[in-house]
């Protein structure tokens, strides 16, 4: 069996195992898995990734390009991707703006780059991921906390009396951000992973291996997808992919001298699945809202989990398709045509509803309750 396909099936199988465990996992158990991921496994992954980077000024263009893509997609998420949602669905719109501009190349892109393009392209992709990490770890966190404080101020909550100070303190308290700071400091002093004591290096590497199975099991156990929401998520992912193809096509058109492997890297990397890290920020906001007893949630946590669950298989299948027909995707014209076609197709359900004058309903509890993370729904059930 093809290695890339085998790797994809392995990831989907772990999600399937998590799905089968849904009825056996209690609320507190699922919440404990979330804490393990966000406080231990995910920081370890970030720490190892940072300390493997060899800084070279000539390669800064790759993280800059990745960060520019993130920012373009953030704008697209607000003005294009979220257009299918009504004004009343503000929590879903904010969730889309957090998740859809983010990238998780580690699971959905890197394994296929290694088998199809080799270690050189994989190293460039890892470097580009630094720009994506800056976006998802810092910028999106600041955006999430800014939304939280603005909405708290509107409701007259005292927690926003010193917005900048509380924002900074919350940023420093996050394990992910603490690890990021420590890793960058070590790199500034010329240290890397091999510079650490052997016992510490082995401990971090051991914890790092927990990340992939824990995240995939967590998604499988937490996902609650109803047919109506699945259609919405699929259309959003198709639209996200279409816009990404258009951006890649324009870039390849402007730089016709690029080698085929680099073109494929520029096409595949932005098609990575949505990152898990914005979900960490939204979960932190959800926890604060539980303590503040805020009436309306800033984010729709159920919706976020379902996007993550759909994004990974969607992206991995798409990446396999790109590599399987690589001769098509190295030319700008097919990229532009495919991107335009996918974007137009994604608007068809929305256009039909507009023509028929049907407004998408927003029914409380329509998509089920996400056990252990949707804190507002959880509190109401327990009371």
Automatic annotation (TrEMBL):
Organism: Zobellia uliginosa
Keywords of this entry: Membrane, Transmembrane, Transmembrane helix, Transport
Lineage: superkingdom: Bacteria
Transmembrane segments: 6-21, 33-53, 59-76, 96-118, 130-150, 171-191, 203-223, 230-252, 258-280, 301-323, 329-352
Name of the molecule in the record: Permease
Record keyword Membrane present: yes
PANTHER family for the chain: AUXIN EFFLUX CARRIER FAMILY PROTEIN, TRANSPORTER AUXIN EFFLUX CARRIER EC FAMILY
């Amino acid at each position: 069996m093809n290695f890339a396909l085998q790797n994809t099936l392995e990831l989907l199988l772990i999600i399937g195992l998590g799905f089968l465990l849904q009825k056996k996992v209690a609320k507190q158990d699922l919440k404990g898995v979330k804490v393990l991921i966000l406080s231990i496994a995910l920081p370890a992954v970030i720490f190892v990734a940072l300390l493997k980077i060899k800084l070279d000024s000539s390669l800064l263009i790759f993280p800059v390009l990745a960060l520019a893509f993130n920012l373009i997609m953030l704008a697209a998420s607000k003005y294009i991707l979220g257009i299918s949602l009504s004004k009343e669905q503000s929590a879903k719109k904010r969730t889309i703006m957090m998740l859809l501009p983010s990238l998780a190349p580690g699971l959905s892109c890197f394994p296929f780059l290694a088998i199809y393009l080799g270690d050189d392209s994989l190293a460039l992709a890892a470097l580009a991921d630094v720009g994506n990490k800056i976006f998802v770890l810092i910028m999106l966190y600041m955006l999430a906390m800014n939304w939280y404080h603005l909405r708290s101020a509107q409701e007259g909550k005292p927690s926003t009396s010193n917005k900048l100070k509380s924002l900074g303190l919350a940023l420093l308290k996050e394990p992910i951000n603490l690890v990021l700071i420590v890793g960058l400091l070590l790199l500034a002093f010329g240290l890397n992973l091999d510079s650490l004591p052997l016992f510490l290096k082995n401990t971090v590497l051991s914890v790092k291996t927990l990340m992939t199975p824990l995240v995939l099991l967590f998604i499988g156990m937490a996902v609650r997808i109803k047919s109506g929401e699945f259609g919405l998520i699929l259309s959003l992912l198709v639209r996200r992919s279409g816009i990404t193809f258009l951006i890649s096509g324009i870039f390849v058109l402007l730089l016709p001298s690029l080698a085929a492997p680099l073109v494929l890297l520029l096409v595949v990397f932005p098609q990575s699945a949505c990152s898990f890290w914005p979900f960490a920020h939204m979960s932190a906001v959800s926890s604060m809202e539980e303590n503040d007893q805020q009436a309306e949630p800033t984010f729709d946590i159920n919706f976020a989990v379902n996007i993550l669950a759909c994004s990974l298989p969607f992206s991995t299948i798409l990446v396999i398709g790109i590599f399987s027909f690589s001769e098509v995707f190295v030319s700008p014209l097919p990229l532009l045509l495919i991107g335009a076609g996918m974007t137009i197709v994604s608007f068809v359900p929305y256009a039909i509803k507009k023509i028929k004058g049907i407004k998408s309903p927003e029914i409380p509890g329509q998509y089920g309750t996400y056990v252990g993370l949707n804190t507002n729904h959880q509190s109401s059930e327990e009371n």
